[in-house]
Amino acid sequence: MNQSDLIHVLVYGCQQEQAISLLKSHLICHIETSTENNQVLKFTVDSPFSCDELKTLWSKRPESEHIDILFYRHDAMPTLKQAGCLFMDMDSTLVTCECIDEIADFMGIKDTIANITLRAMQGELDFSQSLRERVNLLAGLDAKVLETVYQQRIHLTSGAEKLITTLQQHGWQIALVSGGFTYFTDQLHQRLKLDFSQANVLEIQDGKLTGHVVGDIVDAQSKRRFLLEKAQEWGIAPSQTVAIGDGANDLPMLDAAAVGVAFHAKPKVCEQADYSISQAGLDALLDLLED
Q1: 132, 286 in Cβ contact below 8 A?
Q2: Residue 135's domain is classified under what CATH number?
Q3: Domain check: are 143 and 227 in the same one?
Q4: In Å, how far from its chain's centre is CA 85?
Q5: Element containing residue 218 per DSSP (H, E)
């Protein structure tokens, strides 16, 4: 069989024997080769189904809730051998928390704001409207709390530094585009030596949050526009663009990229993204990129 006809498979969250059983018995794949490397199992398979059809079949299996199986063809993936760019969301993607929820904790209203955040990320609420509503609830908070949140609550997601460092070593551009706040993205930009970042500006007067943001809100369409504009500015081929995020406001950005990855994401995002990773760290993205 021609190698280009074979489908490559990545499996996270189970042992090799179980993975082989799932592929053979339930997804009708003939396994050509297999390897085991740290957190990932890699297979090359022959199947009568396309990658998209296999993804749909797998999503209907109950095991998909705790096991990730990604199907792809090498010739359809970006490569580390050429210049490329990665656009990342911040909250619950690059970092482990939702920053606005942690800020709200210092006002005793974390549960209230976290509920709005969750509904917005699930696509149940208009993002811009919900952000204004949440920020308005923070009016009067001492702005020094932002630094406390950054120092005490903001933690990089597992695998983040490895992913970014590896891509930078291969000459890739890295961008952080967030519906969160510049207070955090600016510091992460500097710390991780990123190439571009964009987020919302919290208005501060007399050392306190006013309950407003300054300027236009970075929403779903903004994220998409930044990816397309910066990729063109950097001279990156459309086929070499990758985006990763967890919320509904990331979907246009994921769709605009050659490869869009849902990361520990809401169900709507997992369903619509090209690939979904829920059982591994951010560095699992490197397994998808041909080196």
Answers
A1: no
A2: 3.40.50.1000
A3: yes
A4: 14
A5: none
* End position of a domain, from candidates 31, 54, 76: 76
**Are residues 260 and 188 part of one domain?**
yes
The answer to whether 283 and 265 have CB atoms below 8 angstroms apart is no
The 85-88 sheet, strands edge to edge = 208-214, 196-205, 173-181, 85-88, 241-245, 259-263, 275-277
- Tens digits of pLDDT across the chain (291 residues): 445 579 999 999 999 999 999 999 888 889 988 887 778 999 999 999 999 999 999 999 999 989 999 999 988 899 999 999 999 999 999 999 999 999 999 999 999 999 999 999 999 999 999 999 999 999 999 999 999 999 999 999 999 999 999 999 999 999 999 999 999 999 999 999 999 999 999 999 999 999 999 999 999 999 999 999 999 999 999 999 999 999 999 999 999 999 999 999 999 999 999 999 999 999 999 999 976
DSSP code of 66? T
Query: Is 98 in the same domain as 187?
Result: yes
CATH number at residue 29: 3.30.70.260
291 is an active site residue: no
Whether 283 is catalytic is no
69 and 99 share one domain: no
142/70 same-domain check? no
Q: Domain boundary residue among 13, 45, 76?
A: 76
Q: Which is catalytic among the residues 46, 68, 91, 250?
A: 91
Q: How many domains does the chain have?
A: 2
Q: Which entry of 5, 68, 89, 274 is annotated as an active-site residue? A: 89
- Owning domain of residue 50: 3-76
8 Å CB contact between 179 and 141: no
Tell me how far apart the alpha carbons of residues 212 and 139 are, in angstroms, rounded to a whole number.
8
